[in-house]
Amino acid sequence: MPTSDRTETRAPRWQGYAEAARVSEILRKEAVGGALLVIAAVAAIIWANSPATDSYFALRDFRFGYEPWHLELSLGAWAADGLLAIFFFLVGLELKREIVAGDLRRFSTAVVPVTAAIGGVAVPALIYVAVVRGQDGLAQGWAIPTATDIAFAVAVLALVGSHLPSPLRIFLLTLAVVDDLIAIGIIAIFYTEDIAVLPLLIAAGVIAGYGFIAQRYRALFANRPSMAWLVLLPIGFIAWAFLHASGIHATIAGVALAFTIPVKPARGVTEGPRAKDLAHEFEHRFRPVSAGFAVPVFAFFAAGVAVGGADGILRAATDPVALGIVAGLVLGKPIGILLAVRTLTLVTKIRLHPALRWVDMLGVSLLAGIGFTVSLLIAELSFPSGSTEGDDAKIAIMIASLLASLGAAGILLARNRRYRQISAAEAVDKDADGTPDIYQEERGARADKE
């Protein structure tokens, strides 16, 4: 078959270029959310250490709600259990999309970031346990340095990596999504004590009903499919409330609900409103709420720690909890990720994407050491609110996230300049379908294998 015919017939079926464009779009949006996250955290630290410190903690601990459903919570708890469920709902949508239509559906592309995520969870946990060994009650914080803040990490990458290869961005996003899935599992298994069976069964039934409506939204809302979210939103809240009452951390409800949402458009439809699936509709409506409100508000109430001046900083600097968290995030994350990927490439025939270099992987693995949002949540679950260990853990998370950001930015900025020079020196050739050569070459290689 002539080359032109082969290109014309196969280009629409190839997903890599479209997925790279989608990931790039996500990264651009996350930059604003990452900035708001930092602003909220800094504001909380300043207020909590100002002469008005009592007013901050009075606001954070103000309680309201409906007690019979175990919903009389403080503002801080509403932010951690309620608003953060929106963030995890979007994480669940990203994870399902990757499994159904993205990189995680293919073993060859999924195995590298999945292996990296596992190594990036195991090594930080081992480092933390080694640092606090012999200290009573401190080992329960082992999961704090295992998390990667997907919003913060991709925001930093978007700010410093305008010319970095798209496969590097896809690798980070996939790694962070798998990392969050592991964190969700850790929260559900290790940070759930007493489970109330009846509320859990009711929550499961409500989630099943939610999924039934979500999967049939095109038939139920044929005239106005965008109205589906107005019906599903209150049902989702009821599911969240009963899951919270069961004793399981309520953010798990966000992921469970997200997994019921269809992430593919109607079969055979490529244009018009029906070409956009319900997941796209939910992302469109809830991403601004998550990035612009839910996550910053959580950070505001979670990051406020009364440091206590120089004495408090000195105490935190020598606290095994803080040392274990900083070592786990700043050192354990890159060591675990690089060691896992390197071992995989040595013992199997799997290799890195041709566009990536190990120095690029080092930069991204350092970026994965930004644990902020999920690490703060696990810290609140690990240690009592207001305890010395809990406060020192939060200080350590912020310091480690700052160090990881600076280290990653230094490497990735240098690499970004290098890729910019390459782009300026060599014009990017494009074929008739407008796809850059790097994607055409990869597509051709796949065609040859077939």
UniProtKB/TrEMBL annotation:
- Broad class of where this protein is predominantly found: membrane
UniProt topology in membrane:
Multi-pass membrane protein
Q: What does this protein do?
A: Na(+)/H(+) antiporter that extrudes sodium in exchange for external protons.
**Organism classification:** Bacteria, Bacillati, Actinomycetota, Actinomycetes, Micrococcales
InterPro entries cross-referenced by the UniProt entry: Na/H_antiporter_dom_sf, NhaA
Q: Which family does it belong to?
A: Belongs to the NhaA Na(+)/H(+) (TC 2.A.33) antiporter family.
State the PANTHER family in the record: NA(+)_H(+) ANTIPORTER NHAA (PTHR30341:SF0), SODIUM ION/PROTON ANTIPORTER NHAA-RELATED (PTHR30341)
One of the entry's Gene Ontology molecular-function terms is: sodium:proton antiporter activity
Task: Mark the transmembrane ranges.
Answer: 31-49, 69-95, 107-130, 142-161, 168-190, 196-214, 226-243, 249-267, 288-309, 321-341, 362-383, 395-414
| Annotated localization | Cell inner membrane; Cell membrane
A single Gene Ontology CC annotation of this entry is:
plasma membrane
- GO BP terms in the entry: regulation of pH
Q: Which UniProt keywords apply?
A: Antiport, Cell membrane, Ion transport, Membrane, Sodium, Sodium transport, Transmembrane, Transmembrane helix, Transport
> Gene3D superfamilies, alphabetically?
Na+/H+ antiporter like domain (1.20.1530.10)
Q: Which reaction does it catalyse?
A: Na(+)(in) + 2 H(+)(out) = Na(+)(out) + 2 H(+)(in)
Q: Which domain of life is it from?
A: Bacteria
Name of the protein in question: Na(+)/H(+) antiporter NhaA
Species: Microbacterium marinum
